[in-house]
Amino acid sequence: MLPLEELEKRIGYTFKNKKYLKRAVTHRSFSSEHNERLEFLGDSVLGCVIGYALFQKEDHFNEGSLSRVRANLVKMQTLAEIGEKIGVWEFLCVGEGEMHQGGNRRPSTMSDAVEAIFGAIFIDGGFEQAQTVIIRLYEPMLSQLTAATLGKDAKTMLQEVLQSKHLGLPSYEVVDVKGAAHEQEFVVEAVISKLGVVTTGVGRSRRQAEQEAAQKALTTEAIKNL
Amino acid sequence: MLPLEELEKRIGYTFKNKKYLKRAVTHRSFSSEHNERLEFLGDSVLGCVIGYALFQKEDHFNEGSLSRVRANLVKMQTLAEIGEKIGVWEFLCVGEGEMHQGGNRRPSTMSDAVEAIFGAIFIDGGFEQAQTVIIRLYEPMLSQLTAATLGKDAKTMLQEVLQSKHLGLPSYEVVDVKGAAHEQEFVVEAVISKLGVVTTGVGRSRRQAEQEAAQKALTTEAIKNL
């Protein structure tokens, strides 16, 4: 296990009281002084910080969209990705049995530890410190909400973006079908004429190819800069 | 409708920017500048404030209990009670049709407005100001968690309290049964011998009478001060 100072560097926060961080990375299989209550607290803090960030940034979102996106950003998988990125598993104290089964790198365990770390920062440094760390770690996800985060498919999302700017609807056209009857591959072009954007998607069904084309359109500069 | 200064007095917070409060009390039936996004934000803030309060106060609660109690404290009914207490309905801007149907005093509408007010304070004054107001309004509920808030029946709760202090189990005894066969009324005594506490409950069934006796025991000084 790496020293906790290294973890402090990776999250960009130095604890006044190191025992909070120690506890945040302690799994219940390791000690009765484990991180589950801190995880509860961190979950509360995270919901507030992400809720406020979305409220500020996405001023065109209604309450339903805000709730849906927040839920996607605070769910286990997203937290586990953050845990993987900061390598939280390298610091986790888990019981020997758990460790042998690779339990320190289990997504749910990493997710719990990341939440517990947020809770620990909140206790140690207050709301604004926790907010700073959370926003920094979530920055890539907040600055570009993906179709998955938004809980929408790419075609719906593209349509909404274009409509909000009065740019009409994209058109989709099958430009090629390859392969034998049961192994067909569809090639679809998405055209957003008012922006001069044309993207191509490939898939085993027309629908799949359209989704890919829409996803590619969403990542073009012309649309990202709308 | 009463002036918003009166609402500020009742919640104990004066807004720097009154437009936030105005918006927090505006229902969607009244104007497109309604409170739904603020309600989302307030919900986020409330979860964090109540989560932290429970984390601090109930240091014997595990994560599951903390989550359950938080859910009970932030649910619509609880918020509507707070709305009723501060008379939030006297300030709500709802559409005419709604108003005629008493829509300003509907529990869900009051609950939404109370959350929106918390969100408005957060934007106007920051986390600590919102925390102060929320804790003040929730104080009665936080200082004495009831069986309902805890999502447990009174007997279970009494048993848990006594066991945590190694005071053994309470005993319940039917001391009287009154009335004719189909209208019986049971009188039950709960005895906690180590504390010298005896309480009496009455009910249409033995179980109901036991619950009442347990609930009364929970409110005795001897047990509240454990």
From TrEMBL, chains A, B:
Pfam families: dsrm, Ribonucleas_3_3. It catalyses: Endonucleolytic cleavage to 5'-phosphomonoester. InterPro entries: dsRBD_dom (IPR014720), RNase_III (IPR011907), RNase_III_dom (IPR000999), RNase_III_sf (IPR036389). It is found in: Cytoplasm. GO terms for molecular function: double-stranded RNA binding; identical protein binding; metal ion binding; ribonuclease III activity; rRNA binding. Its cofactor is Mg(2+). It comes from the Bacteria. The active site is at 43, 115. It is an enzyme of class 3 (hydrolase). Mg(2+) binds at residues 39, 112, 115. GO terms for cellular component: cytoplasm. PROSITE patterns: DS_RBD (PS50137), RNASE_3_1 (PS00517), RNASE_3_2 (PS50142). The keyword Transmembrane does not apply. Residues 153-223 form the DRBM domain. Its EC number is 3.1.26.3. Residues 4-126 form the RNase III domain. One of its GO terms (biological process) is tRNA processing. Keywords: Cytoplasm, Endonuclease, Hydrolase, Magnesium, Metal-binding, mRNA processing, Nuclease, RNA-binding, rRNA processing, rRNA-binding, tRNA processing. Digests double-stranded RNA. Involved in the processing of primary rRNA transcript to yield the immediate precursors to the large and small rRNAs (23S and 16S). Processes some mRNAs, and tRNAs when they are encoded in the rRNA operon. Processes pre-crRNA and tracrRNA of type II CRISPR loci if present in the organism. Homodimer. Belongs to the ribonuclease III family. This is Ribonuclease 3. It comes from Turicimonas muris. The lineage of its organism: Bacteria, Pseudomonadati, Pseudomonadota, Betaproteobacteria, Burkholderiales. The gene is rnc.
